[in-house]
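Posting this for the archive.
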Amino acid sequence: MRIVSVELAQYQFRLRHPSIVAYDALEEVPNVIVRIEVEGGLVGWGNAAPDPHVTGETAEGVIRTVGDRWRPLLLGADARRIQSLWHQLGMEAPAQPTALAAVDIALYDLLGKAAGLPLVQLLGQARDRIATSLTLSIEPLDRNLARTREFCAAGVRILKIKCGLDLAEDVARIRAIREVAGPSLLLTLDANQGYDVDQSLALLDAVADCQIAFLEQPVPAADREALRELVARSPVPIMADESVLSAQDLLGTPAPLVNLKLMKTGGITGALQCNAVAEARGIPVMIGCMDESHISMAAAAHLALALRNVAWADLDGHLDLVDDVASGAPCFSQGMISVPSTPGLGVEVLDGGGRCSS
């Protein structure tokens, strides 16, 4: 399985609904699709969804890293040697986890196709499907409530409410959403570093009767002492997100829950390392996402279904993309995520010639 070509294409995917969080507001998102072909014509697909606020990467930077620095190392290499390639690429261009994720995902897609198995089976399938949260961003209350009704009608079981811009408005939105959603729906909160410790505690006190499952990364990622204090004082579990990008970060986190995203960890290889540390420390994980094409979302779904230590899933990053060039996986129905039984990722991608390849 010698690699004979590495191709990249950048896209600006429009969103059906704006993505508004504590640190940004987006109506379209950049993704970089990677196509790796090996001798014999087998093709693996990968995808990068860079977020400068989280890893410092941009789409243009991903293209330079993969196309200029890594392509010479990949051409002629054995695509099955994912561990050694992942390490080699990381040494050549450190601190580029989103770029690394795109290549890593494509290599795993190739591995599954070569084996004739869906990736989830190669990774040690723990389950057939998992409930995923759907996200309500910081939109006006009437839109949040309309989408809540829409999600409930579709059988969604978990809602993630973005917050972190205005404490009073957040409290009012959370309480109104709980009233519309009813008591049986699980609610989680994600402040994306928008609060300090006192604000986080004030929020949780004000919505104490709303049955919040956990609060995700409310304090700045770099302020580990604030996270430690909040974990000790919070009435609900605190989940680390932007503060954990690697297995090394996970070794020192005080959080009892961690959100693993392929774009932060350097793909499946890095996520497996992070999960091993988390499981050894007794920390359940959530497999999360950015706003991503079906390609990398499929990879995240395969991983979430494969690992026993995954307690939560937040795999809705593909559902709002208007003009994705990929389709097929993951499959969303009645609030649950599953993957097809086709080899590799199970995605179909419209290539530059207008043809679909799998």
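Confidence is low (pLDDT under 50) at residues 353-358. Residues 46 and 106 are 4 Å apart (CA to CA).
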